[in-house]
């Protein structure tokens, strides 16, 4: 029997009068088993999101996969906790994922400017940001969750709530996730960091008169992301990659070839402009046009947030406090902990500059306070998957960078400190979004908000430790430059380019301005600026396989005979794709750990296994393995 939430869960009634799904009995869903399982899920989703996000520039929200996995674990280990235990597990899953979705935007940028970061520094600023974001969002809980019930719809929270209520069907979802994990893990072992016996990149590069490059990376992780995000996002990104590789790159190559005895490439004195190859054009020019587009998109997002900022702060200050809205000691402790740890982090990362530590810590807290409130409100409107974290972060970092320049702090060490302050801000913003989403689910199903706060905070701290560890583990690969880098890091590259360029006054401003103008044109055409900009910046090998995943989803939708059949197949496809993402990222991460530790020493594929032909075979195998289970889904699977 499928159960549903009451219609009042979606509004039509004052929040204080809403009767939750669990309206009687204990509100507690936690015990030691739930806590341990939640920590495991937080580790899983933090590591998976960090790996896949740095690889593709896109992240997948963990709420629904977390609720599905949580349903299975609760049924096995803590059945008496029921839906309230499942709710805590989805919240802890979101806690790990939210932290990763924020930290990977800024912290890896430290490696990209040629500096280093210690685990202690990353952990302290991350924990400070996470606790401050959670504590601040808790202060406006009653306004965002209760008083705005039915006005702020929290679309992803409602989807998670429906999943929890209908969780008796989770066995099928977990089966498809398992299939996806197996496919993703097996292909990653063959083509990636384990055996590495088969080439997985279809590559064609033309270095003659018309310079271009087309590649497809046969990666189950990226294909899964494509199925989840759908055709609109995938096609926008791929179209932008076509513009980058088949219009802008050949154009720059053509005009550059006309020069005789010309100057060297601006950031590589060993290559003359008229002798540039495709990789030189992409790395030294096209990349910075993409950075300008992302900068433009981020600033446009920030400007468009001004009305939301004003209304959020105004409504928060004017909100009438109801009888049960007093803050708990845990809420106060978490907020105070965020502030104290934030200041400790400020002194830790400022290299003994007390003035920097005090001024920038205060500014970081103020910017975080402002955007945390906005983050909570926007989550209620568009959900965390679409939360403009990068836009809010860019606006914050530009302000902090201008302060650094004004104070004369322009060295690489100062830039490193700046990016660590930026890590505090972005972590607070991302944590607040995930926390608000999880608390709305708690309100709908009838859990204890204070219990969710504590469990979410634990998951966030765990997430910070995991993400910092993953970044340090991958540091040698993240810092790589050139044409075929293993991790694209579009947002972190933008942060490093922006801060280092402003502080050193050595940005290729023509390229940046061209990209910014293109971003402005995209905005006027009502196109998704950041989506297109990320597609322009990412390698076409990434956007092409993401498009393949979206095409599989489109095919599934088209061959479905009824709306119910389509709903079932897409739902199972999303579960399978979540497994692909988890399998590809977790197994890939394990492979890198084994490589670093010296357990695995592969020489790479050879002979036919190293050719495009092998990569085509791998692509066909991946598409068949991913599509067939979805197409065989039947309506009875969820009935």
General description of the model:
- This protein is an all-alpha fold.
- The chain folds into two domains: 27-162 and 331-478, no CATH class; 180-289 and 495-632, no CATH class.
- Helices cover 71% and strands 3% of the residues.
- The protein has helices at 32-56, 63-77, 82-103, 109-112, 119-139, 141-147, 155-165, 170-191, 220-258, 278-304, 306-318, 329-349, 354-382, 389-407, 412-445, 449-473, 475-478, 490-504, 509-524, 529-537, 540-559, 563-596, 612-631, and strands at residues 201-206, 212-217, 264-265, 268-272.
- The protein has a two-stranded antiparallel ribbon. A two-stranded antiparallel ribbon has the order 3-4.
- Helix 5 packs antiparallel against helix 16, helix 8 (170-191) runs antiparallel to helix 23 (612-631) and helix 10 runs antiparallel to helix 20 (529-537).
- It is globular.
- The termini are close together.
- Residues 320-325 have low confidence and may be disordered.
Please sum up the structure shown.
By secondary structure, the chain is mainly α. The chain is 71% helix and 3% strand. The termini are close together.
Report the C-alpha radius of gyration, rounded: 24 Å
Instruction: Compute the number of strand runs.
Output: 4
* Beta-strand share of residues: under 5%
Q: Classify the oligomer.
A: single chain
Strand order of the largest sheet: 1-2
Tell me the number of helical segments per DSSP (H or I, 4 or more residues long): 23
* Shape, per Cα inertia axes: globular
Residue-averaged pLDDT: 86
The SS-based structural class is mainly alpha
Number of domains: 2
